[in-house]
Amino acid sequence: MTISFFIGGARSGKSKMAEMHTLKLGKRATYIATCEVFDEEMAVRVKEHQERRGENWSTLVTPLNLAREIKNIDPTNPILIDCLTLWLSNHLLKKNDLEKKIDELADVLENSKSDIVLVSSEVGTGIVPDNALARKFRDNAGLMNQKIASVSDQVYWVVAGIPTQIK
Known about the structure:
The chain is an alpha/beta fold and 167 residues long. It has helices at 14-24, 40-53, 66-72, 84-93, 98-111, 132-151; strands spanning 3-8, 29-33, 57-61, 79-82, 116-121, 154-159, 162-165.
């Protein structure tokens, strides 16, 4: 079991790099999508991701219950989770206990028998957000990314489509 974590900014190429990495771990893979489609722009993004992945993937849409889903997947094929920051925002908007959810996910990752690849956005390198909700999201995303990196075997920072292994 290996945990690989891909992190970078918006449109950095992190999802594509994570997809390629996942298929090196097995010919068939499970893609866990955390986003919910609420508008046309997001629908287009989802379609682009699906078309890029092709037929070697089975897809599960799991906006909230990642830990449970990971436990239920057959560990013989690798799992790609894209993306943790959307998962975090789903929990934030539902007013769930973020620290508890992050700890639960980290625990399941550490005890899983699957090869798991995770994608997350780095949101703390920009300006300080002007409202409390955005600051809460930014702060919790930073804490989540630290926690997931700490339980990961490999961490890749992706910039301009170029992955650099930092752990």
